[in-house]
Amino acid sequence: MTLSIPADNHPGRVQGDLMQVEHPDLRGKVAVITGAGRGMGLRFSAALARRGVHVVGADIDGALMDEAARSVELEHDGIDGVGDVVGTTVDVRDRDAQQAVAELAVERFGQVDLWINNAGIFPESPATDIPVSQIQATLSINVEGVLYGAQAAASVMRPGGSIVNMASVAAVRVRRGRAAYCSSKAAVSHLTECLAVEYGDLGIRVNAIAPGFVDTEMTRWVQDDPEALAKALDAIPLHRLGSPEEIVGPMLFLLSDSARYVTGHILAVDGGSRHV
């Protein structure tokens, strides 16, 4: 693996194709990724397809998901050995809908080896003003969505399968105005550990990635506020935002045979901010 950090005029931001990580053991496997229409889900789809993994990307916005699948195909046009990317629609709050995604993957590619529970929301509200609709939606999408995805995955996976959930450093750090989000990610972290214990009986590994501040649309609110950005960078020992590519590398590791004796682990990718 090589890592380079090119110069950037934006304070605390890293750009460029930072990591070239190859996991040959992933080639020919089949992955399901929820929330794959944009952001990190789209990055995961592209990274896995590039390594010969067939991907079923699922998103609540079906048109966006179809566009995302086409964009991955165009990105890899002319490259040999690239995996296929198929888009479909899913509301992760619906357990039957997630099961249907699993069955679609089996019908299309014959199996499911990898599952990334990536779909989530990032609501904001002072704790005293959190409306019922917000806490219900947050727990339903961010927590129930992970559980239903894991259940669907386990129903079709063979021993050796790998599930990765998207947690957050917010599971262990308080962010003002994000009580619903923080509590949901704390639940995802512990749910990951619970699933790892029970799904170990099936030969399935379950881990989670816990990102900190990463340069995505979800953190645009802090990047567009110089004062907030300076405060955020001061709370990160590496004093910069992470890049999406720096989440992809750890994700590939957890999915791959390199991590075949790793389960129930919450891998923080946060520049050390959980310690500050």
UniProtKB/TrEMBL annotation:
SUPFAM superfamilies per the UniProt record, alphabetical: NAD(P)-binding Rossmann-fold domains
Entries under InterPro entries matching the protein: NAD(P)-bd_dom_sf, Sc_DH/Rdtase_CS, SDR_fam
The family this protein is said to belong to: Belongs to the short-chain dehydrogenases/reductases (SDR) family.
UniProt name for this protein: SDR family oxidoreductase
